[in-house]
Prior knowledge:
This is HAD family hydrolase. By secondary structure, this protein is α/β, with parallel strands linked by helices. The chain has helices spanning 48-60, 71-75, 103-116, 120-130, 158-169, 191-202, 217-222, 233-236, 252-269, and strands spanning 3-7, 32-38, 41-47, 62-65, 86-89, 94-97, 100-101, 136-142, 146-151, 173-178, 181-186, 206-210, 225-228, 239-240, 244-246, 284-285.
Amino acid sequence: MPxxxxxxxxxxxxxxxxxxxxTMPDARAPRLLCVEVHESRPLxxxxxxxxGLLTELGDAAVFVPTTTRTRTQYQxxxxxxxxxxxxxxxxxxxLMVDGVSDLDWHTxxxxxxxxxxxxxxxxxxHLLATADPAWVRKHRVAEDLFAYLVxxxxxxxxxxxxxxxxxxxxxxxxxxxxxxxxxxxxKPLTKSAxxxxxxxxxxxxxxxxxxxxxxxxxxxxxxxRGWRPGHGELADDDxxxxxxxxxxxxxxxxxxxxLRELLKEARIQAPQGRxxxxxxxxxxxxxxxxxx
Length: 292
């Protein structure tokens, strides 16, 4: 039985220049590999050591990139190692198989959203009406599934994010603040549902996961074991749960350590297997804090 590894990408395995968090002296900084170019400019990086670990992981397990990015944004990334057969895009809205979206899966997802959530147009209109142009740089709709804003983080009123989260909660949506982006995503649109589908198709009976944001929490809880870095929404909230390891590393070195942990566990557990995907337990917290 194969081991399935579903990992978030941005600020988990790959990092923009602003998110690298290189705090050591320049002469001791790790060598970096550019894994994404956009408009002829380098955009995302991982350490060369992480690139080697990811190549090994691709040989040892079914590696599934799992991202909130759109399909177009995901396809800009050139990860080292064997090309993944499966990828999860748009927070689970698209299940990519050999680079092509699975139409049956996408149809199931859109039907579920129509049943359970307020329509996208209502959420988009609310964002347009309430967000202040003084701190909003861009309004975006992703894959006709969810919406997000790109903001000037230092000008963003904290109360506005909290109020948006309450408004969205009452309409079956969730809000996530990640760097300079504020996401409004339908609650049934989850990475975990898509991971379960890939596990079913591959026959995997052990699932490992990694992620840093609120939108990764369901993925981590659904896996047999999960890891989060020392930065991001989940770390800011001291979020933890059974079978979740909170790593102290931050920035691009956290991505390197996450890959070490995933590879080690995949190699140890691959011959054994550990049963079905777990039901999602309720997370515990080491301190209370109001989430935006």
